[in-house]
Amino acid sequence: MAMNIVCLDLEGVLVPEIWIAFSKATGIPELMKTTRDEPDYDKLMKYRIAILKEHGLGLKEIQDTIATIDPMPGAKEFLDELRSITQTIIISDTFTQFAAPLMKKLGYPTIFCNTLEVAENGEITGFKMRCEQSKLTTVKALQSIGFETIASGDSHNDLGMIQASKAGFLFKSTDQIKADYPQIPAFETYDELMAAIKSAL
């Protein structure tokens, strides 16, 4: 009997993109850019931090926006059902300071993510990645301790864990990513994704 573990991305899969919501809330269009647009996460985060600094915005302002974000319709029910049949971990390049209120709304699933460096005045000064290529590295680590992984996500930074897993799926991804990776099954609804995961278990 294989020991399976499902690895899911967070933003764009279970909750809306935090930075897009914050961009809309602040009216700063430069913050619209996400990992769907910029594959280099380090570059993307440095760009974001520079824009926040320029506008005098810090952690509190982002957390105020996050407090207004709800999981995507059906996400909690999907996650509840998935967790009732197999181990599930959310692997995200977001930060603990962003994820905590969203985890509450999702029923406290396990999440592996990164950490922001925040000054006493609330300014975001930097960030600490848990490890290099965090999603792929985490999936490989789980495999090294006897798990078979099934992965799903929507962005460039999910492709590594999707391709390294025994089964992997794109979910609510972009037309460009779907066109570039036609070999990866792509789904738009939780029912489709659930059926695909169940058939891979």
Describe the structure.
By secondary structure, the protein is α/β, with parallel strands linked by helices. It has 9 helices and 7 strands, in the order βααααβαββαβαβαβα. It has helices at 18-26, 41-55, 59-66, 75-85, 96-105, 134-144, 159-164, 175-180, 190-200, and strands at residues 4-8, 87-95, 110-118, 124-128, 148-153, 167-171, 186-187. Strand 6, helix 8 and strand 7 form a beta-alpha-beta unit. Helix 3 runs parallel beside helix 5 (96-105). The chain is globular. The model has no long low-confidence stretch (mean pLDDT 96).
- Sum up the overall morphology in one term: globular
- Spatial arrangement of strands, main beta sheet: 4-3-2-1-5-6-7
Estimate what percentage of residues fall within beta strands: 15-25%
Mean pLDDT, all residues: 96
- β-strand number: 7
Order of helices and strands: EHHHHEHEEHEHEHEH
Q: What can be said about the biggest beta sheet?
A: 7 strands, mixed
Uncertain spans: none
